[in-house]
Design goal:
12 helices, globular, alpha/beta
């Protein structure tokens, strides 16, 4: 049996040589003893730099429709099933969303993602979103991404025709954990939506939330499914336990488990953007510096769907401090 340090370096070399790692390789990496996490981090960083350079992808979100979602996802403060006390609004006026897109571009964001809290858009709401995208395209010029729930093929093709580059639909957790997190739709429903988006020619952004009571093996299970989807972007959220949700008392993950997730995801998907998403400012004392040197190469700035975040300026300074580029 080869030493852990050597095993990590051999896996690193395989990836650098363009060889996909086996499931057993990835299982070995996520199980590396704590004493070798530095080696794992360094190896993931070398893979990131080889395939992604020093660039950090910085994105901003627009929560264009908030609260009263019909799904019962246990982590979500916007579900109509839970009384979380957050404010709510229906689809925002187009002018407001366009102004926020202008602000995001001016502040240095690479992309602007329109996110709506619903199972799927009604046809009337979908056409309103399409009109908003047209206005952002003509008045702003920032790269638009969308996260609108389940899509039909016709809707996905319409987004593609409007120049939407990437569609986000998270798997949320592993297939084996999913029934404990959501009962109003299935894991396969989420896979099917990603397949529709891909077939329509959209790039994929998908990922999940860690720290929901899943095991390390279930986090590996999620990584393996993400690798099969070959997404251009992976978004990894750190659960922020929302009062009023079933997960409100969930204990946060130790940092070493967070690092394992990001680093091993990088080994599995060497060319993808791997983005530190919700919960970054709450759970990471350095706002993500160490993870940006351990496999991650993207962040969401200026807030999330139901919580605030760092100001863009602070995040750009953080990126510069670790000798990376926004």
């Amino acid at each position: 049996m080869i030493p852990d340090h050597q095993f990590i370096l051999e896996c690193q070399q395989k990836v650098l040589d363009g060889i996909s790692l086996s499931d057993s390789d990835l299982e070995g990496l996520i199980s590396i003893p704590k004493s070798e996490l530095g080696t794992l981090s360094d190896a993931a960083n070398k893979i990131t730099r080889r395939f992604g350079g020093d660039k950090v992808d910085v994105e901003q979100l627009a929560n264009i429709k908030k609260n009263y979602c019909s799904e019962d996802c246990a982590f979500c403060g916007q579900s109509a099933f839970f009384n979380t006390g957050i404010d709510s609004y229906q689809l925002l006026p187009a002018e407001e969303i366009v102004e926020k897109a202008k602000k995001a571009l001016d502040e240095g964001a690479e992309s602007y993602c329109l996110v709506a809290a619903w199972r799927e858009p009604s046809e009337s709401d979908f056409q309103k979103v399409c009109s908003i995208i047209e206005q952002i395209n003509s008045q702003v010029g920032i790269s638009v991404e969308c996260s609108l729930g389940f899509l039909t093929m016709s809707q996905a093709k319409q987004l593609k025709a409007l120049g939407v580059r990437r569609y986000n639909h998270n798997l949320e957790t592993s297939r084996s954990k999913f029934p404990q997190i959501c009962t109003t739709h299935t894991y396969q429903d989420r896979i099917d939506t990603l397949l529709i988006a891909r077939q329509a020619g959209l790039e994929l952004c998908t990922g999940g939330i860690i720290g929901m009571g899943e095991t390390r093996s279930q986090r590996l299970e999620l990584i393996l499914d993400l690798a099969k989807m070959k997404p251009e972007e992976v978004t990894i959220n750190l659960l922020v336990a929302m009062p009023g949700t079933p997960l409100e008392l969930q204990t946060p993950l130790p940092f070493e488990e967070i690092l394992r997730m990001f680093a091993v995801t990088r080994f599995a998907l060497p060319k993808a953007i791997i983005k530190i998403s919700g919960g970054r400012e709450v759970h990471l004392k350095d706002s993500g510096e160490e993870l940006l040197l351990s496999g991650a190469n993207g962040i969401i700035s200026s807030g999330y769907l139901t919580m605030g975040g760092n100001e863009m300026k602070k995040d750009l300074e953080m990126i510069k401090k670790i000798n990376l580029e926004a």
